[in-house]
Amino acid sequence: MESYSLSYASLCGLAVVVAGWLLHCVYKWRNPPCNIGRLPPGSMGFPLVGETFQFLRPSPSLDIPAFYKQRLERYGRLFKTNLVGHPVVVSMDAEVNRFIFQQEGKLFRSWYPDTTNDLFGKESMVYYDGSVHKYVRSFAARLFGIDSLRDVLFAEMEHSVTQNLAAWATEPFIEVKDAVATMIFDHMAKKLIGFGPDKSRKLRKNFDAFFQGMVSFPLYFPGTTFYGCIQGRKKLQNVLKDLLKERLSTPQMRHGDFLDEVVDELRSGTGTMNEKFAVDFVAALLFGTFATISSALAVGMKLLSDHPNVVESLKEEHEAILKKREDGRTGITWDEYKSMTFTAQVTNEIVRISNVSPGIFRKALTDVPVKGYTIPAGWLVMISPMAIHLNPELYEDPLTFNPWRWQDESKKSTLLKNFMPFGGGTRHCVGAEFSKIQIAIFLHTLVTNYRWKEIKGGDVQRITEVVFPTGYHIQIIPREG
Ligand code: HEM
């Protein structure tokens, strides 16, 4: 009896110690240390998962999700949280964002959560900084820089858009995001790795679940979104690795694609690029081109369908361009592209509302004071372009698709100052101009030759970018006359 009470007492004692230890851990989790100053307000959520599940909950409309709205009301434009185990300061403050962009490699450096690194590779472009980063950007500019865009890609994009729209017009309907993604992927798979449509479409299947992985919880077992993503990435990497190996073993054979240049670089012996990086780099470019623009254009098509007055103004601009042509030419010139003022305004509105980038991540290299708070060394900062672009103090009536807001010269510079869909500073998006051209050529060819009818789908949700849970299906119809 006595020994029973003793062991019962020890068990109770142990339970108290464990409970105390757990409480201590929870307290430490919820009250992270800050050496100087004070942390921004906010909650670190539950141990291990933080506030990840709240963060991933979509809004059932174009509006900013509740995760941001509630914290904006409670804490203001700068708040702390924990996402997938990382302490993060979320910035919805345009001034703070501009400051962070300018501090790349000084107070902050590019850093992405393990989930993103698992998807894009631990040594992807976002991993490098300083001179290696500069070198990689200049390497990408061989394909996406202004000379290549104007002299090579421009005409190719027009050809690809013309061919695809004509093919879509023979179908009862198309799902916009998927059709645009296929169009861009086919073009880019040819340019980057020399794949024709058959091989390219097989390769793209590996990307299908990929994009969701960027905003999924990193649970790696069969059946989870994250598992599907990583499997897709592995298959993709194997295809690219085998291709690179084959190309390296036959360097004398030229294919007229970007991989030729990668092979030259790897064989040059400068050592700046290695094979592992080359594979991740090409995969990221393949992904970056089609996933981003297809999402933006799907939102763009929905917004245009809902705003026929914008379509009318687009038609006016593009028909005027056709009328001005005196030589019976059919292709768009670079000068014509540069003259598409209203189209540029429409493009701005599409990227402002769609917010394709889920968030821009940086890591504080030291304790950084901002707006009366401290971002401790080692913490992440997540810049949310969406929260800026949908802020009614910066963009009047922000959920309204209004290309004319960009017309007023007196307001334009303020709008542009706060416009950050492509990031900023030394990491400004490599594909920003490519994206704008692709959208302009698409809109030109569409409104001058076709009209369209909504068939099904089109309901939207927003995580940060806008998504269509049941797709968005439209019929493309040739215009008469
Ligand atoms: C609507 C289309 C697009 C949007 C909204 C977009 C957005 C962004 C953003 C916000 C960043 C900054 C990331 C950071 O600072 O950490 C970025 C970087 C980047 N983007 Fe895009 N992007 C788009 C299209 C493209 C395309 C078509 C390409 C293909 C070439 C591309 C390639 C890249 C690359 C390589 C970087 C990394 C730049 C660096 O770290 O220096 N993007 N993009």
TrEMBL record:
- Obligatory cofactor(s): heme
Q: Name one GO cellular component term.
A: membrane
- Biological processes, Gene Ontology terms: brassinosteroid biosynthetic process; brassinosteroid homeostasis; sterol metabolic process
Cited Pfam families: p450
Q: Which GO terms describe its molecular function?
A: heme binding; iron ion binding; monooxygenase activity; oxidoreductase activity, acting on paired donors, with incorporation or reduction of molecular oxygen
* Chief localization: membrane
Q: Which PROSITE patterns match?
A: CYTOCHROME_P450
- Residue intervals passing through the bilayer: 6-27, 277-301
Judging by the UniProt lineage, the source's domain of life is Eukaryota
Task: Give the keywords, sorted.
Answer: Heme, Iron, Membrane, Metal-binding, Monooxygenase, Oxidoreductase, Transmembrane, Transmembrane helix
Q: What is this protein called?
A: Cytochrome P450 87A3
Q: Which organism is it from?
A: Triticum urartu
Q: Which gene encodes it?
A: LOC125506552
